[in-house]
Amino acid sequence: MTNVPLIDRDSATGDVKEQLDQIHAAFGAVPAMFKAVANSPAALKSMWGSFGAFSGGTLGAALGEQIAVAVANRNSCEYCLAAHTALGRKAGLSREDLTAAQTGESGDARTAALLGFALKLVDEHGQVTAEDVAAVRAHGWSDEQIVETIAQVALNLFTNYVNIALGVPVDFPIVALRRAS
Known about the structure:
By secondary structure, the chain is mostly helical. Helices cover 65% and strands 0% of the residues.
């Protein structure tokens, strides 16, 4: 049971109604996470705006979903893991790609380096070193992509915390959490 009411799009008004209508248009439904966040019009605007901004980012949808899956798994956020695994499949990732991403792994060394960096950000609460940044750069990632990765991690921390703290019910197919090997 959720710790806040889930705001129904049909009863919402103003900016919240407009944003929930946009979310419904994008997903064909309004996922429970957005219904929970809709309790704060400012938080909903921030979250939905961030997702929109990243849709035009340099990392692309597939890599963004791999980052989200890695962060969700690390934070034991069952909601985000389920949602981003489903979205990752829609972005063209295989089940194997998404399973590997849960623990920051990839068959592609460049992708694995970026996922490892994302997880280090989570584990170290952002306290990464110049050497950590240089190591990602050495795998061919630009400064723009490194900054975008940090921003994606921050957005995913926000969504993980919302779903965990508020007990948002998972409305995507469940995916098992994985322990790092």
